[in-house]
Write a structure and sequence with these properties.
The structure is a single chain. By secondary structure, the protein is mainly beta. The chain contains nine helices and 42 strands. Strands 2-13-12-10-5-6-7-8 form an eight-stranded mixed sheet, with helices on one face. Helix 3 packs across helix 6. The longest helix has 15 residues. The protein is globular. The two termini are 42 Å apart.
């Protein structure tokens, strides 16, 4: 019952029993399923979603009530519909519910979601269904679009973001040169496998080879026909086009259709006797497909300063975060587009990590776009300059990394809602600049007053941050950098804990100066293990059985000698999804300071979750291949400290 008030405990009613959701399509819009409506992409009223909620790393109780919960979109928000009463064999019974529920007394949950066809039996983790054979009607076409998603969240009263991905394939035939013929295509069909299975746990969908059927395509416009199919091999398959003169035309294609991919077959009809396949383009489903010289576009393009509310939990004494971007042009600022998607991915990632996961309900979090004239960032090594809003830039060796600090501060003062209404100041709100640049890097600028901003490039690919098998090999991407720079340095005000072995680099001072700032920085390291000339902030944890990993480990803040840290490994070393115990305490203290609440160590201990997925053996993060994993440099610049 940690985290409940005395009154709530006396009433026997735990907090946050109601689950609120905010699903969004990756590459699509903020809430709901992707559907074409009046030329725009938007959520459709009446869309439904099924949820399977279970304790993190657990297994669902599929024979108990509430194993599956369903919700529908009313055009504004998602509302609860039904829950399964029992599931056995092919039988399923359903009962209406008034709210979605967290179900158990646990504090951390895995949430799996899928749509459509929500009220059916699921033998965990397998889901089986079929696409519509006749997709000529819009409702059957979009009703075949199977999507699923998964997120991990602490029990919270805030809407939980659930990223949904298209997990089947789309086949489209686009006709060009039709002005040269005197016929029109009425329908398109193909013989293919309609049945599919999906493993919800492993995020996989596949065709069930149970016999081919004839599938009829949806006519998106006069010369564009589309079908949604399970991922499968199409070998010399005949696509049959039925014409308005009663005849047929045949196109043969060979495709290895992958899940989440749209295949656009462009056909030239200018030769009146034969149709020629000009191109076959596989396109990730979340990318725009050009149609008739135009583009399908979202119904809104964000302008500088538009506020996207990721979550708003407090009106008094808010704990505020802001994520903005640099190097994003108008085409990146579509609603649900590249910038918004990256910002949501970063914040979703942050709130899966303790203590942010447990204390999420304290935060107001805003995503605020900034429009740049050019993509990218300045390269101080080559001299290439980009015209961007914040003038971000750095050298190829990751040094000299920064932005225009005055522009950053003015941007916050002008557009952050909690600053505008006087609830907080610029010193209270750390801001992250997600930079639209594929180069490696990451830095935090921190002031003694508490002000901070970070630069996090959305670096391409996977990176290996450490290689110690005993501590767990850390592999991640730019979101791990966001965790380290923003969650660790900017908000947590933590120092780096990494160093280069055998470098001999030594810290000769007997204290760490930023420990004595107005708003201290770097309390997760010390320059004196005896606590005589410097603070040892974790001394109360040494020997406490609740914190068995805590001790003294030499090396930190880029120094091999003369600086000590409290644990062997943490996010401030190799960017893993784990802050060590004293870092968790410091982060919670910062939350309480901003919320104007008193920090209580015993209450912190009652809520604390000391689990490192890489080190503790209960879970391992695995990747399908190490071929494309690059080794991350150990020389990212330390935070720039401004007294």
């Amino acid at each position: 019952m940690a985290g409940c008030t005395q009154e709530e405990m006396d009433n026997g009613e735990p907090v946050n029993t109601i689950l609120r959701i905010s699903p969004y399509v990756e590459g699509g819009l903020e809430k709901g399923r992707l559907i074409e409506e009046n030329g725009h992409l938007s959520f459709s009223q009446g869309d439904s979603l099924a949820l399977i909620v279970m304790p993190e790393r657990g297994w669902p109780q599929q024979y108990e009530s509430g194993y599956i919960q369903t919700a529908s979109f009313d055009g504004t928000e998602w509302k609860a519909d039904f829950e399964s009463q029992f599931q056995y064999g092919a039988d399923a019974a359903w009962a209406p519910i008034t709210a979605l529920s967290w179900l158990s007394d646990d504090n951390s949950f895995d949430i799996y979601a899928y749509t459509p066809n929500v009220k059916q039996m699921v033998q965990w983790p397998m889901y089986y269904h079929t696409v519509h054979l006749d997709q000529r009607e819009e409702k059957n076409f979009y009703g075949s679009d199977f999507m699923m998603g998964k997120t991990t969240s602490s029990r919270t009263g805030a809407p939980v973001s659930i990223p949904m991905k298209h997990r089947l394939s789309m086949l489209s035939v686009k006709l060009q040169g039709m002005e040269h013929v005197d016929w029109k295509v009425v329908t398109m069909s193909i013989s293919a496998q309609p049945l599919y299975g999906a493993n919800l746990m492993y995020d996989e969908a596949f065709a069930e080879y149970d016999g081919e059927k004839i599938l009829q395509a949806y006519k998106q416009d006069e010369n564009l026909f589309s079908l949604i199919l399970p991922p499968q091999y199409l070998t010399e398959k005949e696509i049959i086009l039925s014409l308005d003169d009663g005849t047929k035309r045949i196109i043969k294609v060979t495709l290895e259709m992958q899940m989440g991919t749209s295949y656009v077959v462009t056909v030239d009809a200018s030769d009146k006797k034969e149709l020629e396949v000009v191109t076959v383009n596989p396109i990730p489903w979340d990318e725009t497909v050009v149609i008739q010289g135009g583009e399908q576009v979202a119904d809104k393009v964000y302008n500088t300063g538009d506020v996207i509310v990721y979550q708003r939990m407090r009106t008094e004494n808010p704990v505020t975060m802001v994520v903005t971007g640099d190097g994003y042009t108008a085409d990146d600022l579509l609603e649900g587009g590249l910038f918004e998607r990256r910002a949501r991915e970063a914040l979703d990632f942050l709130f899966t990590v303790e203590p942010y996961k447990t204390y999420r309900d304290y935060f107001n979090v805003y995503i605020i776009p900034a429009l740049s004239k050019e993509k990218g960032a300045d390269n101080h090594s080559t001299g290439v300059q980009k015209d961007t809003y914040f003038n971000s830039g750095w050298r190829d060796d990751y040094s000299d990394m920064g932005a225009n600090e005055n522009t950053v501060s003015t941007f916050l003062e002008t557009y952050c809602p909690d600053i505008v209404n006087g609830s907080v100041t610029v010193d209270d709100v750390p801001v992250c600049l997600l930079v639209n640049d594929s180069r490696y890097g990451g830095i935090c600028w921190s002031w003694s007053s508490g002000k901070a901003y970070t630069i996090v490039p959305t670096t391409e690919g996977l990176w290996q941050y450490s290689s110690d098998e005993e501590l767990g090999v850390s592999i991640g991407d730019w979101k791990n950098t966001f965790l380290h720079e923003y969650g660790g340095h900017a908000f947590g005000r933590l120092a780096d804990e990494y160093f280069t072995e055998e470098s001999g680099k030594t810290y000769y001072e007997n204290y760490y100066s930023s420990h004595y700032w107005e708003y201290p920085m770097g309390l997760n390291v010390t320059a004196d293990v005896n606590g005589e000339t410097d603070v040892v902030y974790w001394k109360h944890m040494i020997g406490d059985p609740r914190f068995p990993k805590v001790d003294f480990y030499e090396g930190g803040a880029t120094y091999e000698f003369g600086i000590w840290r409290s644990e062997a490994i943490s996010a401030m070393d190799d960017n893993r999804r784990y802050f060590n115990a004293i870092s968790r305490q410091i982060i919670v203290e910062n939350i309480m300071r901003k919320a104007k609440e008193t920090f209580d160590f015993e209450e912190f201990c009652a809520k604390d979750v000391d689990f490192d997925e890489l080190r503790d053996g209960r879970s391992r993060v695995s990747y399908p291949s190490m071929v494309n994993v690059r080794k991350a440099p150990r020389k990212n610049p330390s935070p720039i400290l401004v007294d």
